[in-house]
Design a protein that fits this description.
2 domains; mainly alpha; 5 helices; 91 residues
Length: 91
């Protein structure tokens, strides 16, 4: 296999594992609370928590199915991108 591909897969596995670790346990909330100095940095706390919580594999698959459907009915590229953008913004 290509060395870059293996490195990319390893990085992806590491990131997904880290997100799952922070999302499933109380360790992540304790670390974020201490990093934000007991809530005085509320915005970074909310942004990191939202980024961890926003990973939803179902949303990616539905987006791909919708785009594949729009391509199969020969929709224009601008329409496909606008529908995909609306979907991403809505999630």
């Amino acid at each position: 296999m290509n060395k870059k591909f293996v490195l990319l897969i390893a990085l992806l596995i590491f990131l997904v594992g880290g997100v799952l670790f922070l999302k499933t346990g109380t360790f992540g909330t304790n670390v974020l609370w201490n990093v934000s100095e007991q809530g005085s940095w509320l915005l970074p706390l909310v942004l990191v928590a939202a980024a961890i919580d926003s990973i939803n594999p179902c949303a990616f698959s539905i987006l791909l199915i919708t785009i594949a459907f729009l391509i199969s009915i020969k929709s224009r590229r601008v329409r496909i991108l606008s529908i995909g953008g609306i979907y991403i913004f809505g999630i």
